[in-house]
Amino acid sequence: MRCVCIVNIDREDDMKQDEQIRKALARRAFIRSGALGLGAAALGRSALAAEMIKLPLPGGPDERRIITDYPGKGPMILQRTRPPLMETPFSVFDKGVFTPVDQFFVRWHWADIPTSIDPKTFQVHLTGHVNKELSFTAADLMRKFKHVELAAVNQCSGNSRGLFQPRVAGGQWDNGAMGNAMWRGVRLKDVLEAAGVKAGAVQVQFEGAERPVLPTAPNLKKSLSVDHALDGEVMIAWAMNGQQLPLDNGFPFRLIVPGWYSTYWTKMLQHIRVLDHEDTNFWMHPAYTIPDNWPKANMTPGEKDVKMVPINKMVPRSFVTNFAANAKVPAGRPELVRGIAFGGDTGVKMVELSTNGGKTWMPTQLGKDYGKFSFRQWTTHVKLDKGDQTLMVRCTNSDGLQQPMTPNWNPGGFMRNVVESTSVMAV
Amino acid sequence: MKSVSRFKRPARRTQWIVAGAAAVALVTSMGVAQALTLHAESITRPESVQVFPGDSVGAKATNSYCLMCHSAGMVLNQPLLKEDAWLGEVSKMRNAFKAPIPEDQVPIIAKYLYSIHGSKKGADTGAGS
Questions:
Q1: Residue of A110, A117, A168 with shortest CB distance to B41
Q2: Taking the mean position of all CA atoms in its chain, how far away is CA B72?
């Protein structure tokens, strides 16, 4: 049975404890690598200059600016200024399972985005195939409905698109178009039931406050099935990690669709429309569609007549976070390796590490479980022989779905979840 | 409301305000325990000043029709594309995203983008969205 995980009161203590463990681990790793004079290599992807970063995008262009003066944000990889596309520098994911709000990735489709919002007057309008049309401010939602909290990964459909080969057009993300937060808000189910969904409802459509510059262009609208919208997991959230959402992450409230890609997590949620028909708008089809063979989302470049369906549930992924590509690692003694994993639309069952190209896999220890939709930290120790080594990490989710060894391909650059490899040099 | 009702006489106006402030504080502290009090947000997002280089017909058309919706970095951060792929991208901007590019300008823009950011061996997809 699916239910929203309502976090206990001791969550903050747990988070503090988690933070302390993280700091201790980070300190230990830093001292070790620092003692070898390798500190800089272990801290992040190779920096060309103070404000540039080189991403591993095959064939380039691979240099991006690290923007440090974006209002309300810490250092971010600038993928596009207008409308903003900003990626989380990957070293941030080593800090813990909750992504800092000020380094959470930003992705807008259209350039006409509100620059100022008063939560007292901003409303979400619930209309369509319902008994009673309703409107709510943030305060209305807070007052009228039970509050719930849920840790969930928000990942762009095109996260890692820049790693596709052959390359595809679109936002050229490395792996940082994702983040995990503790979301607080209300169940969409409760809100829909207050309006009363009529028999015959098919889908529920969501639209935020962003608008195209050209009025003839299609507004971003995304839809979920009525059953999904009423499953008690989908939320309208006004807080992440205990803070109000930044404007660029959807202030004053956004949709949270646990286990599904961000394209459905409508920011600045302004309209909820209960539809008595299937949504056929551009943003449901052909945009954001994948070959109809989930969990693969795979086809051959140039393949014709492939049936495409709207992207939906996420698939498992895992990453090494404490070593950047080509980091130097001491050889011949057990070294800490750690990272993050997530199960996609369900929890993490196990994370394994291979140092021999996937011939054999060793288990890792999983960190604290913040619920099935959250990042989960994993740790292990490996003893490497001197020379170039490759660390491969593989997540298996609670449904038994395992990351594949070969990458998928589709023209949208969606749903990459191949087993990732991190090259290191053992010295 | 309760605390306010204790002070009925207008003569005690000062205490009214004090009591009122206390009542607000109480509500706020309860609010913190239950939910966040949201504060208005505003932002001035940085603008890009980057333009497509040159003063050719292609450069002019690209600067005229592409930058109204997105900054130049979006284009220049793409992988190098084949000429047909650029044609596909520009057509998509016109047809799907309704960029007001006159039909005869589409190949001119595609040719220009290929000249500054293309390769015969480049990617040939034009279907990303």
A1: A117
A2: 14
